[in-house]
Amino acid sequence: MNGLNNRLFNTLNTMVDLFLLNLLWVITSLPLITFFPATAAMFGVVRKRILQKETEGIWKGFFKVFKENFKQSFILSIFWGILALFLFFDYRLIHPGVSVVQLIFYIILIIGIMLFSAISIYLFPIMVHFELSWKNIIRNAFFFSLMNPVLTILLLIIVGAGTSLFYFYPVTIFIIGSFSAYAVYYLCQIWFNQLLNMKGTN
Fold it and tell me: 29-38 long-range CB contacts below 8 Å, 24 or more apart?
């Protein structure tokens, strides 16, 4: 009975912490230009919670990771934002059309958007888990997205479901971010451990 009560208490405590974490993420993301640093901070806190390395509270832990990753994540946000705008305007301009050339360009664009989305999923888990430059973060995110397509698709489904939920029910912005981050990082951590084990056996 005590074990059940402890598990229930830990579950409720985690849900409350994730709600508070999500609230911090929303507030610090409001300027928009701080979206990447805020998201990196959220993933950093989630990582510590999953690895049971959390020594500070949610508030202190969040802003500690926010400061540590601010410069790197801000530079990455500029590069990634430019690339996202380029793909967006291309999508608005390029249509399947009737010619073979138009169709080929459209297919290439769709593949590019799918690859961009897949790489984006891994950016923050890699950023908070490994000590890498922003260029190497992108490079590793690219390789990870191709190395485990099943995981990549699953992560895209999780983020896509969260985005859809927010689109239809905007009030979910106050819970969906941290819960999605928790699910994404939890699965990525399993993948990171498998890679480490594979490297150790070689």
Answer: 33/74, 33/77, 34/74, 35/77, 36/73, 36/74, 36/76, 36/77, 36/80, 37/66, 37/69, 37/70, 37/73, 37/74, 37/77, 38/66
Q: Cα 59 from chain centroid?
A: 20
In single-letter form, the type of residue at position 88 comes to: F
Amino acid present at 7: R
How many other β-carbons are positioned within 10 Å of the β-carbon of residue 59?
A: 12
Q: Could you tell me the two tokens for 141?
A: 């995110």
**3-state class of 196 per DSSP?**
helix
How far is CA 69 from each of CA 22, 74, 153, 163, rounded to the nearest angstrom?
Answer: 18, 8, 27, 24
Q: Where are the beta strands (DSSP E) in the chain?
A: none
DSSP secondary structure of 50-88: HTT---S-HHHHHHHHHHHHHHHHHHHHHHHHHHHHHHH
The pTM assigned to this predicted structure is 0.89
**Domain chopping of the chain, boundaries:** 2-201
pLDDT of 41-69, one tens digit each?
A: 999 999 998 888 766 788 899 999 999 99
Per-residue tokens: 135: 């260029």
Q: How confident is the model over 72-113, as pLDDT tens digits?
A: 999 999 999 999 999 999 888 887 766 787 888 889 999 999
Closest CA to 175 of 2, 5, 8, 15: 15
What amino acid is encoded at 107 in this protein? Answer: I
